[in-house]
Amino acid sequence: MRSVLPSAVRMLSLIATLTIANLAVSLPAPAAESAAPTNCQLPRSESALSIPLTQLSQRIATGAPIRIVAIGSSSTAGAGASAPDKAYPARLDHYLSERFRNADIVVLNRGINGETDDQTEKRIEADALAAKPDLVIWQVGANTVLRDGDQSLSERVVRQGVARLRAAGVEVVLMDLQYSPKMLEKTGVAPMLTRIAGIAADNRIGLFHRFDVMRSLVETRGMTMADLIGPDGVHGNDAGYDCVARMLAVGIEDAVNVHNSGLQR
Q1: pLDDT range class, residue 36, cuts 50, 70, 90
Q2: Contact at 8 Å (CB) between 252 and 88?
Q3: What span, in angstroms and rounded, lies between the C-alpha atoms of 180 and 216?
Q4: CA distance 99 to 257
Q5: What's the burial of 149, exposed, middle or buried (CB within 10 Å: 0-12/13-18/19+)?
Q6: In CA terms, which of 22, 49, 118, 130 is 20 to 30 Å from 260?
Q7: pLDDT confidence band for 265 (50 / 70 / 90)
Q8: Rounded to 5 degrees, what are φ and ψ at 212?
Q9: CB contact set of 206 (below 8 Å; sequence gap of 6+)
Q10: Residues 224, 230, 236, 241: is their CA dihedral positive or negative?
Q11: Which has the closest alpha carbon to 121: 151, 152, 163?
Q12: Is the pLDDT of residue 21 over 50?
């Protein structure tokens, strides 16, 4: 018994060691955070917001906490993303935190699937202003175009919403349409892009040219629609949302830097 027991113990120990080793080999490694494709890059001028973000710049310079509200419909909510943290607002939070490392920045996702602009405008008080944001990014126009809706109504309510946000002292950036197969089937794309640009220009607020940015990525960087848009032909996939967020973060960074460089002259 004395000679058998130690041998048995050693054998069990060896079996356990080999089992653990095999499990370690067979278990998948933790998934790394997905990154945007390396060709998700454009000249900085293409992501420019056209105006400096004066108040945001001042808060970043003083070290004050920054709260950004992203409001809009499904491509803000994150339809087509594999998880909420893959939607563009969450990715924007990530990229802004990288670019402004000394700032306390939070991006809140207030997107709701299926909304048109008149529905979003009705909840500006509850879902945007109630959060006391420093900046609101309002993604507009998409469902009106996709449903062949009333563009004059869309323009009117967006103007009303922008006026309410500005009256409350909040800076605003509009985000226009996504460049996607289903969107390109619609004749209302060009008129809506013109309306959105007109609202931004008239109110001297920022405009993120999402449609042009995504089109440039396809036409000049060798990306395909499938790199950016999911199988429904409308909504972004994880890489597409990540890429949009990365480009928007560049635009916001430059809008902050333009203001700060102006102060230093």
Answers
A1: low
A2: no
A3: 12
A4: 11
A5: middle
A6: 130
A7: very low
A8: -70, -35
A9: 49, 50, 51, 53, 171, 172, 173, 174, 200, 251, 255
A10: negative
A11: 163
A12: no
Q: Note the pLDDT of residue 39.
A: 85
CA 172 to chain centre: 15
- 237/229 Cα distance (integer angstroms): 5
What gap in Å lies between CA 205 and CA 70, rounded to an integer?
Answer: 15
Place of tokens 């067979």: 26
Supply φ then ψ for residue 32, to 5 degrees. Answer: -75, 155
SS3 sequence of the chain? CCCHHHHHHHHHHHHHHHHHHHHHHHCCCCCCCCCCCCCCCCCHHHHCCCCCCHHHHHHHHHCCCEEEEEEECHHHHCCCCCCHHHCHHHHHHHHHHHHCCCCCEEEEEEECCCCCHHHHHHCHHHHCHHHCCCEEEEECCHHHHHCCCCHHHHHHHHHHHHHHHHHCCCEEEEECCCCCHHHHCCCCHHHHHHHHHHHHHHHCCEEECHHHHHHHHHHHCCCCHHHHECCCCCCECHHHHHHHHHHHHHHHHHHHHHHHHHHHC
Parallel/antiparallel/unpaired status of strands 206-208 and 171-175: parallel
Strands of the 171-175 sheet, one edge to the other:
105-111, 66-72, 135-139, 171-175, 206-208
